[in-house]
Fold this protein.
Amino acid sequence: MEQVGRKTFDEVMVPSYNPAEMVPVRGLGSKVWDQQGREYIDLAGGIAVTLLGHCHPRLVAALDDQAHRLWHTSNVVTTEPALRLARQLVAATFAERVFFCNSGAEANEAAFKLARRRGHVAFGPHKHQIIAFKDAFHGRTLFTVSVGGQPKYTQGFEPLPGGITHLPFNDLAAVERAISDDSCAVVVEPVQGEGGIVPAEREFLAGLRTLCDRHKALLIYDEVQIGMGRSGSLYAYMHYGVTPDVLTSAKGLGGGFPIGAMLTTAEVAQYLPFGTHGSTYGGNPLACAVAEAVLDTVNDRELLAGVADRSRRLKEGLEAIGRRHGVFEPARGLGLLIGAPMAPAWKGRAKDLMTLGFKHGVWCLVAGPDVLRLAPSLIIPEADLHEGLRRLEAACGELVAEGARAAA
């Protein structure tokens, strides 16, 4: 087999990413090993994807079994894994209908198209405004990146789709001023992920529900990152007790195998009739078989209760590190999507800390330049959690030492 490494990326790949120097080759549970055999504690979860860790035996068995049966058909026909998974999602949530695709961006694209088409067909072409929030992230297609409220992702790709209004997150009064009978949807992340791991206030979501009902607009939850057990509930809307009209899911839904889903009611789903939207790989039998196993495993009272316990331990550990080294402000987030804001003296250094983390054998993420983000497996063993925090503290110590040398 041809030898490849990080240098190969620069020789053959489009430079839209800048991956770390380490190249992982094997993972098991909450540990990963690179080409040199070095071990890392995985507190990143593939950006909240590998929610049962690496190579979970139930997921491996489901994939292996389906791989010997049927790989792909297109949507000219349907398949048993897709039908079973859709039935499970309907049984477990508010939804009555499911649309399968390959990613969170595609799930959001479907949701936004559905909202626009419902507005046009049911009320007229004037009903097309989408209200979204600053610092949101909904994907990298031109439509989804336009709905996301971060200009750095849209600059240079103009002209952008119009009819989108961005408002401050958790500011219900701003929504009250902006929403009208021309609004077809309000789109919100129950916890802003890329925007810094900022949870929505319950009163904010409840207010959005009331306003959407008043103006006959759809309330769309983007639960691509916080969904599928990461909040401590199967979906975060259950934690908040405020139900949307449309919910998008991906990332953890496949446990590492690419799949996305848009969930909605039968009444809303009728506005995407035959021929209006599609996906060649949507509902792929391999992906759906794995997602079945994920949902069977995650939708368990004991497992979900364990998320809250791990969340508490992780936040307490981060806050202890922050007190000892002065690098973090108090942690925030929901369940096992946690942000550790960098203290004022260390603003802008989150990526530097992530890089030092690799050096010390712990894999973390960032959520912007000022927040270290952690999204480990929902079942990370206590020993791995403790060791990951120990290694992260070592990285923090080195960051502080570097700062002291630079100041001397």
